[in-house]
Amino acid sequence: MSESREKSALEKFLTLFTDIRSGEGVTAAILTLNIFILLTAYYIVKPVREALILVGGGAEVKSYAAAGQGLLLLGAVPLYAMLATRLPRLKLINIVTLFFAACLAGFYILAQFNVPLGIVFYLWVGIFNLMVIAQFWSFTNDIYTPDEGKRLFPLVAFGASAGAVGGSYISGVIIGPLGVYQMMLVAGGLLLVSLIVTRVADGRERRRAAKRTAIRAEAEEEPIGSEGAFKLVWTSKYLLLIAFLMLMLNWVNTTGEYILGRTVAQAAADAIRVGTAGGLSEAEYIGKFYADFFTVVNILGLVLQLFVVSRVIKYFGIRIGLLVLPIIALGAYAILAFVPILSVVRWAKTAENATDYSLQNTVRQALFLPTTREEKYKAKQAIDTFFVRAGDVFSAGLVYVGVNWLMFSTSHFAMFNFGLVIVWFIIAVLIGKRYTQMTAG
């Protein structure tokens, strides 16, 4: 981008949050809006998912269904890669997004005939939210250079943080007047809006690319290469490291959520027993805790995304940014191993989750900036879906073995997580080194 012309009023405003250069503001704002819409759609269907699975199957079925998502992704990822091989990026995005929007309409119709949807819808949402968000970031990686991405991703990722907050609020407001199943139609409508926004962003960036080089604009219309998604991951040391990073990160985080839930449940039971629950039932006590917890996490994540993330990346780079969350996690689980009380667990998970949703999310998306277009669309789908869900499966296995065979206490789970974080940290160091080499010069 040229700095020869003066920045617009929008670009001057956005400079408060990241390094925006002349001509970049509108597209960055459009992409921020797009991911906001997608996350809002997801957080509108998320409570629908919870209601249907818990009423139709219960917490145990929900746990088993989470593992089932990983198995379904073994088929969904190669299918997506096949489409990516045959279609240019805009057609790929259109077809995949229209498919998910049509599914929502189909679920709504089935609900009118009282067809049980709990398990099927839960499995579907688990694939939908990962694939659509990964596809957005593939598109964003495709239109930005590594230098542009490092500067602009913090702003774009703010849209994701804001969408999570906004979607949660909107769903709470409209679910009463509209009803559970009508929420599916609202989310489907938002997906259609996102297609319009994507088309606008794509058109702007093609015109920009055409001005820089007529060749690139033509090349972007060509279909992506023919390699399989998982093969791309297994044959690239860099991509394989990212895949294991995501597996370890999600394993640690999901186990941490179990530690939190276990501690909250025990605290609620103790409060009821000694009469310090303030008149709340056990369920109400837990519900109030999580409402407050999620509010603080989301607000802290938004603040970090707006004012901290871009500065960490600007002054320290992606390589150091990758190490911040594992360092926080190391400290958190080291403390929890010896002081597993609710107040400590709460603030440890608050720091971990808020950093994960802001800085960690931004830097992991930037890792794909120096990769090929084929890797951006195919390998990223495999990593952001299957390997993320694999972390959930490993965590479920750990909890089952720890509870039923090894009789783990909360401290034991924290110690195990500490060991996992050390492996995660080493992987992050290796990725950072490779990323620096790939983007040098």
Mean pLDDT: 90
Rg result:
22 Å
Main sheet record = none
Secondary structure class reads mainly alpha
Oligomeric state of the chains? single chain
Total helices: the number is 15
The SSE string, one letter per element, is HHHHHHHHHHHHHHH
Q: Can you walk me through this structure?
A:
By secondary structure, this protein is mainly α. It has two domains: 18-226; 237-439, Growth Hormone, Chain: A (Up-down Bundle). The chain has 15 helices and no strands. It has helices at 9-14, 25-56, 59-86, 89-112, 118-143, 146-178, 182-212, 214-219, 229-234, 237-274, 282-307, 309-336, 342-366, 373-404, 410-439. The radius of gyration is 22 Å and the shape is globular. 44% of the residues are buried.
Task: Provide the fold topology.
Layout (H helix, E strand, L loop, with lengths): L8 H6 L10 H32 L2 H28 L2 H24 L5 H26 L2 H33 L3 H31 L1 H6 L9 H6 L2 H38 L7 H26 L1 H28 L5 H25 L6 H32 L5 H30 L2
Helix pairs in contact: 2-5, 2-6, 2-7, 3-5, 3-14, 4-5, 4-7, 5-14, 6-11, 6-12, 6-13, 10-11, 10-13, 10-14, 10-15, 11-13, 12-13, 12-15
